[in-house]
Amino acid sequence: MATEMRCFLQTAQGRAVMEEQRKRKTILPDPGSIYFDFFCSVTPGCLRVKQFFYPSKLPLAVPWENIKKLYYYGQKAEGEVSIGYDKEGVWWASDEFRVKKRQIIVHNVRIERNVEPSRIGFTVHHIVPFLEACRMLLPFECHVSGEF
């Protein structure tokens, strides 16, 4: 399999795929997104948490009807995990700088949902536009709370 992949990457099509991956370092909006940043995007159908699965960094799509609670708070370097499972039972999306001091203000968002994994967390770059985008899409019974 590895030999086949090396052979593919030497072809014109393989070089085009590698070039496209290099260009994807910029933030591209998801089709139909109301809000997007490097960590997540809000679409009418679902909340998409980018780089959730490690090591593939594939996104996790969370349908709005599955969300029970949404809690947000300002990011602090101490007591945080960069990726994986924390002591409170939350699965966190990849953010290598969550455990370090940042120059910019970002927020952590925790979601409880009625499917497994039931508790997930991710980073949001601009919390106010994110909450405005989510407001009309969240189920009526969803509890939203947090602190700036």
The tally of strands reads 10
How many domains would you count in the coordinates? 1
Structural class: alpha+beta
Radius of gyration: 17 Å
* Gross geometry: globular
Element-level helix/strand string: HHEEEEEEEEEHE
Order of the strands making up the biggest sheet: 6-7-9-8-5-10
Protein architecture, described:
There is one protein chain. By secondary structure, this protein is α+β, with helices and mostly antiparallel strands. The chain has one domain (33-146). Helices cover 20% and strands 32% of the residues. It contains three helices and ten strands. It has helices at 2-9, 12-23, 127-135, and strands at residues 35-36, 40-42, 46-53, 58-63, 67-74, 84-85, 91-92, 107-113, 119-124, 143-146. The strands form two sheets. The chain has a six-stranded mixed sheet with strand order 6-7-9-8-5-10, with no helix packed on it. A four-stranded antiparallel sheet has the order 1-2-3-4. A hairpin with a 3-residue loop joins strand 2 and strand 3. The longest helix is centred in the N-terminal third of the chain and has 12 residues, at 12-23. It is globular and about 50 Å long.
